[in-house]
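ARCHIVE CARD
Drawer: 12
Card no.: 0347
Subject: one protein chain, sequence and derived structure
Cross-reference: see card 0346
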Amino acid sequence: MAKVLYGASMSLDGFIAGPGGDMSWLTEFVSRPNPTAAALVEKVGALLVGNRTFGGDDPNQGTDKEGAFGGTYHGPQFVLTHHLPETEIPGVTFVTDLAAGVAAAKEAAGDRYVNVLGADVARQCIEAGLLDEILMFVVPVLLGDGVRMFDHPGGMKVRLEEVRDDELWFRVAG
């Protein structure tokens, strides 16, 4: 059965996007080879994407590497939104309910991962007990501001267990 994974690149100070969702800071780093990231693409069977992330900035925009995983992912996407679009987009299913979206993405993923894209959707999955693992690729840059990898005003302790000791890959323990 599919597992739900929050996988993203993060600045050393904990931001997955700059102010206003800016991803241009990542452009100089995405061309560097990363064997774990390359192998992960084959293990992802579906994406669960926040609407802001879906319509947001792509560090590879306008190039042949545009899209998830540098343009190498070509599977189903489920976009969590409050407002369904008027026109359909091939390969993209828009959902308005988190639990239903996770269930549909897991069904589509089969025995592979559902990769969560977007900090807000990841936070919602954590709060609902729907997130299984977290994998962060730390990028050697400090942004100082932007979209935090995890943000819960007032705080929220989430216990994690290491999946691999050579990466920032964790299992959500509770």
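Annotation on reverse: The radius of gyration is 15 Å. Residues 98-109 form the longest helix (12 residues).
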